[in-house]
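User: Before I run my own analysis I want an independent prediction to cross-check against. Here's the chain; please return only the structure tokens and, at the end, one sentence I can use as a sanity check.
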Amino acid sequence: MADFNFKDVDRLRTFYSIARKTGRKLAVTLGDAFLLKHLTKDPKLQVPPPDDSHVVIIVPKRGTGQYRKEDYDSDERQFLSQPNAWTADKLSKDQAKLIAHVSYYNIGELIDIRPEIGSSFIHSLREPFNEEMLGDFQRLHKWLEHFGMSFTQSHASGHATGEELKQIIKEIEAKTLFPIHTEHPELFREMAKETRAVQVGRTYNLSG
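Assistant: Structure tokens:
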């Protein structure tokens, strides 16, 4: 199973490609299927359609819990009759043949899918950087621990970690530091001889 930003077309194509190369199918949510339907209108994006032979649509239990048509929104019903629309029993039986897109927001599907102990969960998103995200992250780990799943963090955001930033500042021996693109500029005060908060509309001379 994997959690990634489905709107990130490059990452979507990556997981789809991995699924194909490993003899698996990419299992997506009903919302993902709806998105795929519209993304395929642009052939340049090169994403699979929701009825692709290497795509499976996860049909969750709703309402009555009996997979009745009226349990689902009108936009979702169009996918329910597709041959690749799988309910929990089918997903559970053939889970070894899938890479399922499962996130914190639909993690409850694991109750019905019943993942095998030792199954892998790949978190291909940035790590939490505030209290709300940290809380969600901790709850996600509780779910994975309950089902005996392993966790792998695999994400390259292009942003340096806190320790990497400290090392960079130390190596360049910055005389003045202007923290930008951060929620906590005060944390940089001890990293340079002088730290200045940037204010909108002001001009700063960086020539030294």
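Sanity check: The mean pLDDT is 91.
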